[in-house]
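Shipment paperwork, digital attachment
Item: protein structure file
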Amino acid sequence: MNPFKKLILRRIITENISVLLLQYMGLMLTTLTLYPTPLWFASGTACAFIFMRGLSILPGIWLGSFIAYSLVKGPAFYAATIFTLQAAFLLMLTHRFIGPSLIFNRVKPLLKFILCSSIITAISSFLLSSSHFFLNWLANLNGVLIIGFGLITLDTYFPEVDVLKQKNRLILSLVFGLLLASTLANQLLLTLAFMLLIAIIYNWCGIITGLFLIGITLVFKQFFGFPINHLFQTIILLGIIAGSGYAVYTV
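Attachment content:
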């Protein structure tokens, strides 16, 4: 075999193994739990990697989902197919009607992607399970938007993330510390207010970092048995729309 083709094949296999592991861990940690969680990691990692690597990583998404559902004795083939189709449709419809990436410099395509992903995740969440549909749909959508946006932003604008660290560290620590405190205390309006403040001060990378912090905090609060207010899922979604829209508008 041609050395170049060998290199491409090795890369595709490595990427699919990585996606398989991420899909498996994401499903076991946040999707296949006893109680509804505020966001699904697997939805976000699948979304991010299919935009970064294309349709070639679909086998990894399918196999990771199949193994996870098999271990909990769920509808493995069916669920794996739903998760795989969700990622594939997100990529194809976005490329066809919105743009080539999840990095937006105008508000209109951002809102179009949020609407498109809302519809796709609603359909897939209903097909996966009609019980707790609303919470599962928000968790699925939040995973796509928070984890998907976060990973792609880190991959695309890593130097800008580094610049964020070089801002006034006292103000940076205070704002994000207050955001974390309000999240831990289940203070919905304060959390939304701090997200908007972060969008004003730190723009796109700031709001994505803040939303990622909120999502991770809520997931681990529930994982360790602390009660969470599921209205936070709606607040996170409002924060994504308002904060990201403002950040894109001011670029």
